[in-house]
Design a protein that fits this description.
- This protein is an alpha/beta fold.
- The chain is built from ten helices and 18 strands.
- The protein has two domains: 334 residues, Glycosidases (TIM Barrel); 71 residues, Immunoglobulin-like (Sandwich), CATH 2.60.40.
- Helix content is 24%, strand content 22%.
- The strands form four sheets. An eight-stranded parallel β-sheet has the order 7-4-3-2-1-10-9-8, with helices on both faces.
- A hairpin with an 8-residue loop joins strand 11 and strand 12.
- Helix 4 packs across helix 6, helix 4 crosses helix 10 and helix 7 packs parallel to helix 8.
- The model has no long low-confidence stretch (mean pLDDT 96).
- The structure holds ligand H79.
- Keywords: Glycosidase, Hydrolase, Signal.
């Protein structure tokens, strides 16, 4: 018995390969965690963390009335930040669908006073504005009785009777069919929750306890929309049928969070790192861990230095607005990207892995050296290329450099140093 296998003999179509190329070059997207949990202002895991019984949590949708929601405004905010795509939670672990599903009544249209499909509005706005749309979809479901056997997280359903796993798989397929039929072109599906069904000894994950039927699910998605990119936050090397690899709160191959990925698990697919602006995915009233402009810029630069995208999260409030501080961060990112985006968009990983001093990106014969620690002097070990010239970006003033058999030595005048990121453009012969 081998659970967790992917789509057998998967061969991506031309459209899919084109979509991967687009994705690889896009570099910056907006993650949106929004659901009925946003009402409580305690993150998207509140049902689990506060051990709220299903029957009590079911009252939340009756309060959800985001009259301030303006999908166009969100899309414009993403665009102004320099983001090329949006990934939104269609259904998170709490099992509540933010779209008009017919698979049950636990959704935005059937169970809230708002009564309108928020994903449909977002899809229309994205298509109008030329922003690609991905749907986050939770594999685990704390609300559905057929999510049985239960995983390690969520609520006890004692007394509700055991459900049927096969029915749960059918439920997911029905929902994914809706998501890929009723919302126009969907750029990707972002799965999360795989790890809920793995054994855990307090330190390490063990064997998978259920069959997620990825073969059928991935095949279904690619049949409905061949270009649709599949990613799965399983913290493993990519499995067959997946089109990109994602990394949660860790740069590729890093494992600072305890559930990251080892370097050997980094595959060959386009990559994406997701991170929060503060410390929370879903709206959190108490979160004071707002990252600085410098931290956020360093994060996208380092991600690009790995060849990876950054999917930067906002957790909109229950009224449908994005909190002011996050809007401010998005504006700052936008200003920086407008000025320096050509050293990020469409680049590949540079010749050196990012570190705390610098990161490198590459486009054709040009290498962009991002100096992140305010240094005037940088030494790059020989990487087997002859250098034609070295200039400051964007002003194109010439910089002095020396190349010998050991490497390349660059010096930037003090008055040209930018404490956040000094960008040097290195042209190869
Ligand atoms: O949607 C966001 C989060 O809600 C979700 N993924 C992002 C994008 C997420 N939250 N936590 N995780 C993913 C990883 C889960 C780790 C845990 Fe555990 C599983 C916490 C408790 C069970 C592993 C086992 C770590 C501690 C025990």
């Amino acid at each position: 018995l081998s659970f967790g296998q992917g789509q057998k003999d998967y061969k991506p179509t031309e459209e899919n390969l084109d979509a991967r190329k687009w994705f690889q070059e896009a570099k910056f997207g907006m993650f949106i965690h929004w659901g009925v949990y946003s009402i409580l202002g305690d993150g998207e895991w509140v049902m689990n963390n506060q051990n709220i019984p299903i029957q009590a949590y079911e009252k939340l949708p009756t309060f959800f009335n985001p009259t301030g929601y303006d999908a166009e405004a969100w899309v414009k905010m993403a665009k102004d930040a320099g983001m090329k795509y949006i990934t939104i939670t269609s259904r998170h672990h709490d099992g509540f669908s933010m779209f008009d599903t017919k698979a049950n009544n636990y959704d935005i249209v059937d169970s809230t006073p708002y009564g309108k499909d928020v994903l449909k509005q977002l899809a229309d706005a994205c298509h109008k504005e030329g922003i690609k749309l991905f749907f986050y979809y939770s594999l685990l479901d704390w609300h559905n009785d057929d999510y049985y056997p239960r995983g390690r997280t969520g609520n006890d359903i004692a007394g509700r009777g055991a459900g049927e796993w096969d029915k749960y798989i059918a439920f997911m397929k029905a929902q994914l069919t809706e998501l890929l039929t009723n919302y126009g072109e969907i750029a990707g599906i972002w799965f999360d929750g795989h790890w809920d069904q793995k054994l855990w000894d307090g330190k390490r994950f063990g064997a998978l306890q259920v069959d997620w039927h990825y073969d059928e699910i991935y095949t279904l998605i690619h049949e409905l929309q061949p270009q649709c990119l599949i990613g799965n936050n399983h913290h493993l090397a990519p499995i067959e049928g997946e089109d990109f690899q994602m990394f949660e709160k860790d740069l590729p191959g890093k494992n600072t969070t305890g559930f990251g990925t080892s370097a050997s698990d980094v595959g060959q697919l386009p990559m994406e790192v997701c991170e929060t602006i503060n410390g929370s995915w879903g709206f959190n009233l108490q979160d004071r861990q707002h990252k600085s402009k410098e931290e956020l810029i360093h994060y996208i630069v380092k991600a690009a230095g790995y060849g990876s995208n950054l999917l930067l999260n906002v957790g909109p409030m229950p009224n449908g607005k994005i909190q002011e501080e996050h809007q401010q961060s998005l504006k700052e990112m936008g200003l920086w990207m407008r000025k320096n985006g050509s050293t990020i968009y469409g680049t590949m990983a540079g010749p050196f892995l990012p570190n705390d001093k610098f990161a490198t990106t590459r486009k054709g014969n040009t290498i962009f050296l991002h100096i992140l620690d305010g240094s005037q002097k940088v030494f790059l070990e020989d990487f087997g290329k002859k250098i034609k010239d070295v200039k400051l970006f964007p002003d194109q003033s010439k910089l002095t450099f020396q190349q010998n058999k050991f490497g390349l030595f660059i010096e930037v005048p003090k008055d040209k140093i930018d404490s956040v990121d000094t960008i040097v453009e290195i042209t190869l012969k």
